[in-house]
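Task: sequence design from structure.
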């Protein structure tokens, strides 16, 4: 299955622009959440070509989430297996970053479909929620602090609402993030969970 050519051309342009300017944070290794500071897009962060790096690892997943013409859900079995791998290594973080790209693409597509009168808005929102559930589940299954910090980095990125089309969906994940506190005992991460969920929906905090 081929990714829509227009989308690939857009991504190629973003990658080329980032390589030419060299702006943004530098890469400090793949074992981390890599989309923080990417601005409104998610293909590149400074000199870190995130999408280009991950596309070959999860080609079937990206072929579905990046093609608006595809109506079925992506197969996430490989991503779920990787993000839940123990001991933690690069594959956990590759899966986390792939999920993040899929999530932001789905929220963007949903906002594009808002008000169109079709079911695209609801469908994209439902798929985004299912993708966000993958790192949520991994947080409870994998106790390694590095991965948990990376997962919180992802939810913190969501809470900023900076990615294109993501701002209206931020509050939908507040309860999901708050529930992570039941899986955590570390004081520092508990404080981050409270801070992130409050940023997502301050009026709904108990």
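Answer:
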């Amino acid at each position: 299955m081929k990714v829509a050519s227009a989308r690939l051309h857009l991504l190629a342009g973003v990658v080329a622009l980032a390589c030419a300017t060299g702006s943004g944070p530098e890469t400090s290794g793949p074992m981390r959440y890599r989309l923080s500071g990417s601005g409104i897009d998610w293909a590149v962060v400074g000199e870190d070509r995130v999408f280009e790096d991950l596309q070959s690892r999860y080609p079937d997943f990206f072929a579905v989430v990046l093609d608006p013409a595809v109506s079925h859900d992506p197969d996430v079995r490989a991503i779920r297996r990787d993000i839940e791998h123990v001991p933690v290594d690069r594959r956990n973080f590759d899966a986390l970053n792939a999920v993040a790209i899929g999530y932001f693409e789905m929220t963007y597509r949903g906002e594009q479909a808002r008000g169109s009168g079709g079911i695209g808005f609801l469908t994209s929102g439902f798929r985004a929620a299912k993708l966000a559930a993958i790192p949520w589940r991994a947080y409870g299954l994998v106790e390694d602090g590095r991965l948990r910090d990376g997962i919180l980095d992802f939810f913190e990125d969501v809470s900023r609402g900076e990615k294109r089309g993501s701002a209206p969906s931020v509050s939908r994940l507040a309860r999901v993030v708050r529930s992570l506190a039941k899986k955590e005992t570390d004081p520092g991460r508990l404080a981050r969970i409270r801070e992130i969920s409050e940023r997502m929906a301050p009026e709904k905090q108990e």
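The mean pLDDT is 82.
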